[in-house]
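Researcher: We plan to redesign the surface later, but first we want a full-length starting point. Tokens attached.
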């Protein structure tokens, strides 16, 4: 598997699509890995050079000592883009990945041509909720988080209709290194970008899930109203909308990334 050995972290990544095509990078949510995007990639790799990577502490990437920060997670991606000689990329991030995108929009706007921010918010959850989750992981390991992940990430009908996928989801969470999960929980707990939104001039598409309890549509609408150049879409899904509604999600992303500048109101 391709691994980029950067300054203080090794990042596992996969890249596909025509080398001459514009690049789009996908950043996944807490507790998953780059395979979260498996159903999205086939829709895009004809028109784009598609880069997926595992956030530090997840999947095949390394887990350096914490504490970490959102800036550190974003700079990991910038170093990966440098290593792969990619610049002016399109970006799609979900949940934690969306927060990485917001940071880049403020601090490295020259590196990101357009952004899709899915199932995310400028501030996700409360300090108390993150502290409670971290305490659960510290006392019980990843097992309890794996058991409850499907209910947090998918709608009831989707869970009932896809038992094999739910088994894969639980295994995915169980494989996430506990130190990496905890360190990223702390990042989310300590991040509040609500005061930064007005500074982001990058064109953005906000995708929310109608049934998402973790980052509800109200959070998506707040991003839409707070970002100067943003469009909004909502899918009949829960938190992992890219997994639950891949065709619709990919269609929104593809159309947004291909549309002419200024057309996304």
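Model: Full-length starting sequence:
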């Amino acid at each position: 598997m391709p691994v980029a050995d950067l300054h203080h972290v090794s990042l596992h990544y996969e890249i596909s699509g025509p080398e001459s095509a514009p690049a789009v990078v996908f950043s996944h949510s807490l507790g998953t890995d780059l395979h979260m995007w498996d159903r999205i990639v086939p829709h895009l790799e004809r028109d784009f050079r598609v880069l997926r990577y595992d956030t530090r502490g997840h999947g095949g990437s390394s887990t350096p000592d914490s504490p970490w920060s959102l800036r550190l997670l974003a700079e990991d991606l910038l170093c990966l883009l440098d290593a792969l000689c990619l610049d002016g990329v399109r970006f799609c991030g979900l949940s934690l990945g969306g927060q990485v995108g917001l940071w880049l929009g403020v601090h490295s706007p020259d590196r990101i041509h357009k952004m899709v921010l899915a199932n995310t918010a400028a501030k996700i959850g409360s300090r108390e909720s993150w502290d409670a989750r971290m305490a659960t992981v510290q006392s019980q390991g990843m097992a309890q988080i794996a058991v409850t992940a499907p209910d947090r990430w998918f709608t009831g009908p989707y869970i009932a209709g896809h038992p094999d996928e739910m088994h894969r989801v639980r295994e995915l969470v169980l494989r996430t290194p506990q130190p990496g999960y905890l360190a990223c929980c702390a990042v989310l707990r300590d991040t509040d970008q609500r005061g930064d939104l007005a500074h982001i001039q990058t064109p953005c598409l906000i995708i929310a899930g109608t049934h998402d309890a973790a980052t509800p549509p109200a959070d998506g609408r707040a991003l839409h109203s707070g970002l100067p150049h943003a469009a909004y879409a909502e899918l009949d899904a829960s938190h992992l909308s890219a997994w639950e509604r891949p065709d619709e999600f990919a269609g929104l992303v593809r159309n947004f990334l291909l549309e002419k500048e200024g057309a996304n109101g």
